[in-house]
Design brief:
The complex is a heterodimer. In chain A, 45% of the residues lie in helices and 15% in strands. Chain A is of the alpha/beta class. Chain A has a seven-stranded parallel sheet, with helices on both faces. In chain A, strand 2, helix 2 and strand 3 form a beta-alpha-beta unit. In chain A, helix 1 crosses helix 8, helix 3 runs parallel beside helix 4 and helix 4 runs parallel beside helix 6. The N terminus of chain A is likely disordered. By secondary structure, chain B is mostly helical. The model of chain B has no long low-confidence stretch (mean pLDDT 93). Classes of the chains: A alpha/beta, B mainly alpha. Chains A and B meet through helix 4 of A and helix 2 of B.
């Protein structure tokens, strides 16, 4: 593993919300961070134009459901920094609605990005990690993959599958110094919770022992913990961070 | 192309040393079983190392080389 002060971190879907929180966390810890999203945001421009981050931040507009684009993104990162120490698969999309009313497109869009896109990134980046004999992968899952949620059958399916992927890859790659874990957040105060109305959010807060929604920084700290070189005895786990909602 | 082939041989030697599988071999030696004895994960490692150093490798393009010679021949093509 390279020096923690200069690790190369890839965070998918890091332009906003939880992903942006994870990107910020690794930039704050002095690492080099590459991220991608379908569109640039003001936050991306802010990082890209910050002189203090020169040579430590890379962004590409990528649709991760497109294998060619995501492969090119990884090649760009390798071209810039030679290695990838950490992969955080954060990019995801949700289409809420009763499954009986969902279109084929609704199903395909969610599975193509959340599941197939994540598998592809694990394969491409995992090969680089295999070649070096070290690395950490964290998949951002969700408590709905464990508990389910009305109206999120497809999204829940992808997150449950992602947790299975995490366990399988941990077994597959563990002997080569590569850890693979999932973090399953509860309800966060991000764009992903905007589909919930105020009544639903208040109900979630009432049922959450911690008495609040989660913040991206709550999750970023766990991702940092799982990818710290000294914590390489933890692999194949799904760490639930939901303020006790599913306890 | 000979340079590429010899570089592939160097990568194979480096991989075998890292995998603690140093043993005499020739072009007819099987990569698997009673030959070099690679399992599926070791094959993936070798594939990744070859791609890293040479930009391509036979396994990634669907060619399942069975012997050392078949592996090296990929880079002569």
């Amino acid at each position: 593993m390279t020096d923690p002060s200069g690790r190369v971190v890839v965070v998918t879907g890091g332009s906003r919300g939880l992903g942006a929180g994870i990107v910020q966390s690794y930039l704050d810890s002095g690492d080099r961070v590459a991220t991608c999203a379908r569109t640039r945001t003001d936050q991306v421009d802010k990082w890209a134009n910050d002189p203090a981050l020169e040579g430590r931040f890379l962004f590409r507009e990528v649709d991760l459901a497109n294998r060619e684009q995501s492969t090119d993104f990884v090649k760009d990162v390798i071209g810039a920094w030679d290695v990838i120490d950490i992969l955080v698969n954060n990019a995801g999309v949700a289409r809420d609605g009763i499954l009986s009313l969902a279109s084929d497109d609704d199903i395909d869009i969610v599975i193509d990005l959340n599941l197939k896109g994540t598998l592809h990134m694990c394969r491409v980046v995992g090969r680089r990690m295999l070649s070096r004999g070290s690395g950490s992968i964290v998949n951002i899952s969700s408590i709905v993959g464990l508990s389910g949620y009305r109206g999120l059958a497809v999204y829940s399916s992808t997150k449950a599958a992602m947790d299975g992927m995490t366990r399988a890859l941990a077994r597959e790659l563990g002997s080569r110094g590569i850890t693979v874990n999932s973090v399953a957040p509860g309800y966060l105060r991000t764009e992903m919770s905007h589909g919930l109305d105020e009544g639903q959010l208040q109900q979630i807060i009432r049922r959450t022992p911690a008495g609040r929604l989660g913040e991206p920084s709550d999750i970023a700290r766990i991702v940092q913990f799982l990818t710290a070189p000294e914590n390489d005895y933890i692999t194949g786990q799904v760490i639930v961070a939901d303020g006790g909602l599913t306890a | 192309m000979e340079n590429t082939t010899s570089k592939a041989g160097e990568v194979l030697d480096r991989f075998l040393a890292r995998a603690d599988k140093v043993a005499p071999y020739d072009r007819d030696t099987s990569l698997y079983a009673e030959g070099l004895g690679l399992d599926s994960l070791e094959t993936a490692e070798l594939s990744s190392m070859l791609e890293d150093d040479l930009g391509t490798d036979p396994f990634s393009v669907g060619i399942m080389a069975q012997t050392v010679g078949e592996l090296l021949d990929f880079y002569e093509a």
